[in-house]
Write a structure and sequence with these properties.
Elements (H helix, E strand, L loop, with lengths): L5 E10 L2 E11 L4 E5 L6 H8 L7 E6 L2 E4 L8 H11 L2 E4 L11 H12 L4 H14 L15 H14 L4 E5 L7 H16 L3 E5 L3 H7 L2 E6 L2 E6 L1 H4 L6 H11 L4
Parallel strand pairs: 3-8, 3-9, 6-7, 7-8
Antiparallel strand pairs: 1-2, 1-4, 4-5, 9-10
Helix pairs in contact: 3-4, 3-5, 4-5, 5-6
Length: 257
């Protein structure tokens, strides 16, 4: 059996008195798309942020490739702690709800910032790759544009190219269309769908149920900090076994019914 690229076991996280994650477990094979569904506050975003170490879980194990961190035994401070977190963080690129682009940098400059500064790669090589990524997301003619000169959908596509520029093992999408006007949603989803067909490993938090059906190899439905149901989209979305999943999908797909 091939070891899954992404491995999450026993993930817990508490904010104050609120337990946001209560022992989340799942795996994802290389080259697959995993979609996380669930109501607001179910823990979806916290799972993603834990993979990228933007949140530090209280306990549990996260592995990406040959890098694995046991947060239950992670030192409270010191160089060893930072080295472990840095190694895990380097395995993923994340695309946020908001674009978080540098407003004073052009589209191309935003994309090459990570490879140049964090990875210290040669500028000529990074610029060439950055231009290729702009072309991949359909923005080859906007490399000199600043974020204020781009639509929300174009800014988000630059954000996707920026995440890809560091050559991550896994690309994380945290509700990448939630801040967009409805007419701009499709262009961003099309780029994400293309990445999935190209063999990128993706984890996607979204409320776009029909998109999840099209792109996901597996769907995780979370509620109350636990995985209530998981499996292929034909099962979880098309024929859910848990009443909580059925109720959620009914409310999302048929609001007001």
């Amino acid at each position: 059996m091939t070891t899954p690229l992404v491995r999450v076991s026993g993930l817990t996280k508490t904010f104050g008195d609120t337990a946001v994650l209560k022992g989340v477990d799942f795996e994802a094979a290389a080259g697959t798309s995993t979609v996380l569904l669930g109501p607001s506050g179910s823990g979806k975003t916290t799972v993603l942020r834990s993979l990228d170490t933007l949140e530090i879980p209280d306990a549990g194990v996260v592995g990406i490739g040959d890098v694995e961190v046991d947060f239950g035994t992670l030192p409270a401070q010191g160089r060893d702690r930072e080295a472990r977190l840095r190694a895990l963080r380097a395995q993923s690129g994340i695309v946020f709800q908001q674009h978080h682009l540098f407003p004073h940098k052009t589209a191309l400059e935003n994309i090459i910032e990570g490879p140049l500064v964090a990875q210290r790669r040669p500028r000529d090589e990074v610029v060439a790759e950055g231009r290729a990524l702009l072309a991949q997301v359909g923005l080859e003619d906007r490399e000199d544009s600043y974020p204020s000169q781009l639509s929300g959908g174009q800014q988000q596509r630059v954000g996707i190219a920026r995440a890809l520029a560091i050559k991550p093992r896994v690309v994380l999408f945290d509700e990448p269309t939630s801040a967009l006007d409805p007419e701009l949603v499709g262009e961003v989803l099309a780029v994400i769908k293309d990445l999935a067909t190209q063999g990128w490993t993706t984890l996607i938090v979204t409320h776009e149920i029909r998109f999840a059906e099209q792109v996901a190899d597996q769907v995780l439905f979370l509620d109350g900090g636990v995985v209530v149901e998981h499996g292929p989209p034909a099962q979880v979305i098309g024929d859910p076994q848990q009443e909580r999943t059925r109720t959620f999908l009914r409310r999302v797909l048929h609001p007001g019914a």
